[in-house]
């Protein structure tokens, strides 16, 4: 045992790689754990040696029959009869059946007196009014036996279906165990659910009995509970009776016989009742899917599979044992209620609470007062505590608390750290599985370290993998289980041919269970969840997991909750194809902290953080502040409901939500209808003009409100948006505002002043100030867009004290003719910079195409006797015809393969048209090298305003005709994007040949177009700063 622990808990590759665990189990705890004890027993049984958990897990999935047989026989206090052989009939996950010759009784095993004696505590029921009810195992077993005997006298028997509307208290547990003791099948729901919601779940089952709380409590809202129960009973024609769990009065309209649980317990005879054993796979629970995309699915779970899986998770993975007191914050509608109930089989005392969270610290107070040893909660509650500034470890006596669990959604890294720093240093187990399997795929392990943001391990005997495109992947993928497991549901109730069950779990990946979560498995064997796969967004061809966004947003203190969904907005006339008419947009819904408003500054901060810490693809198109997000009765957020609301579609089953009214606030949000809003007139006053500009900005950015001092570029503005904005300004005011105006007047207030005061020139100057400073300036030349606007963020990330000036192309406003040769641009720009700095040394930088211009400027300045202190090319490509011969031949060799792969990706019906397009573009390329221009722009260029289109076409033509000549002066700093542009020749071979004064290469791990975007612009700015410092 010692050897098993030492190799498993202290040897961890991740530590050697710089990863520090958030918590490490003590050697004493690991040696004494039930995981260690079972491992030793399995080694003795099989003759195998399991020095690490990975070896144990590999064996358990490879030899799952041996594992389950050994676990069944090892589990102390487990009462069963019959034969454990065969362990499993069948080898495919969808149809395999476990222990067909084995008999057991679920309730009997939960209440057995061998694992813990009759005087051991079993249940503490805590009420909102402060009352406590405590039962020993003997007392609880006695009550259950009495109730079961009385129910049998009412005719309840094996195979009957019983439904329940219950609060989380002692009566709920007694009634549930009494029903299952008789072999009947139980389905539970929470007391706050509406009649419609309950009927969606219960009506298909044709239940015989209804268990229900009926008394009204001070914290209840909405329709009285008794009226709900009466309405439910009236709509269930199969119902033969109601078991009332408290002393509330039901309306006289109830026609079924009503029996009080207390009376049944009083007249039942425990001595006359015996716990009959039933087939291992007899139906125990019918659970329900959330129902947000249609009627809830009725998921049938077998008694033996549920019990055996829960025993494994409780005893081995959670190390639960007699003496533990476990409280899990749950309702009777959530599978964690069933999961906690099964902990009785391990001798655990369970703690329940039937009230609301009246104050944020309510649950911590309960944990402290009841000396809870294992506390189960959710990321949402931990976030609530963090936002409230709680320090539970100082505010309460948590000396008894030894472990915590969290489930329901992704638990982020910072929440692990918050628990460690504000609660105590203990194992925080992120567990994940669900209602579908009534258990966990990934969870805790008493012998393994805890890493922030990760579940400790895969569940034993479950071959959990990450799949992508129908095969295992080493990165993020679909969570699948590739082997049979006992807690797989028996099927869906009413799904006679099994087609619904197959479609739900086995149609996506043949032969394996597909769960619907996104997951990855780091090398250490841990697991990191990335949210639901049905919430994955496709943003301009790139899959974006919402979990990647939420992980960033949870660190922004102004945000309480967030949800990101996809909107399909019509952007073209009906005569276009469906794909052409609709554009996919990412919409971010935010619930902000009390007193916080969604300002332009906050929206800009959100966008910057997402771009910096995730990628520009993760930046939403729209950000909306909403009062609340739709949630199911289990407390899980419903992305499907929000998605429908954002798209103006009806929600399939609003009764599945506990707060369906919030959907109207989302559906009718003004920011979703900005394009259709009537613009206020520019008017005659500055105030009216600002209101008009605000409306223009809000329509342009698809975001409201935008403040008068919010920065155009911080909001995500670029040259194309600027051109559209100023075109709208011209149409509404008659004023022609140069594009460069936004560089020095980037706010609504500044732009209004520029318009009102007629202070700006009619055409954009070539040389524009971008950032003030002291000393000799850095001159930055535009890319193919003709504007330096795309470099705004990079410039503002520079630490140098120097001023920065941008050089913009002629013709941006359509008022000047464009320049068609790089040499002409260089000469013109030199004239401009000399008007500001007559003599060198000069510092020059150019992004993309601009690198060619600054290279030629350096050539001309050097020939004129001037000195260039810095010449920086930001990932500048050259026309392939000017590459050295070997590079050019390699490019020509690869080019047909590139084109063939592109052609194969084109739908067959469009290939002829694509070939014509490719041939035309090739012919135009030859023409441009001879001095011509393109006769028809590509799709992107065609979408630009005419002036920008002309500039872009001119830049493309200038690039195809410019051959860089040898440069003998100062070294060239070449900043290279590590991800090469597709179908482009590598320019470095040319720059190495012509930069005779030396070439310094710095690389940034991104693509060409992401070089000047977050998070890469910080690295680019640092390299430029270093170059300027050494100039």
Structure notes:
Helix 25 (686-701) packs across helix 26. The protein is an alpha/beta fold and 1031 residues long. The longest helix is centred in the C-terminal third of the chain and has 21 residues, at 885-905. Among the domains are: 2-79, no CATH class; 80-122 and 136-304, 3-Layer(aba) Sandwich (Rossmann fold), CATH 3.40.50.12780; 536-673, GMP Synthetase, Chain A, domain 3 (2-Layer Sandwich), CATH 3.30.300; 763-892 and 943-1031, 3-Layer(aba) Sandwich (Rossmann fold), CATH 3.40.50.1820. Mean pLDDT is 87; it is low at 1-17, 571-582 and 931-935. Strand 7 (161-166), helix 9 and strand 8 (185-190) form a beta-alpha-beta unit. The chain starts with a helix and ends with a helix. Keywords: ATP-binding, Ligase, Nucleotide-binding, Phosphopantetheine, Phosphoprotein, Plasmid. Belongs to the ATP-dependent AMP-binding enzyme family. InterPro entries: AB_hydrolase_fold (IPR029058), Acac_CoA_synth (IPR005914), ACP-like_sf (IPR036736), AMP-bd_C_sf (IPR045851), AMP-binding_CS (IPR020845), AMP-dep_synth/lig_dom (IPR000873), ANL_N_sf (IPR042099), PP-bd_ACP (IPR009081). This is Acetoacetyl-CoA synthetase. Pfam families: AMP-binding, PP-binding, Thioesterase.
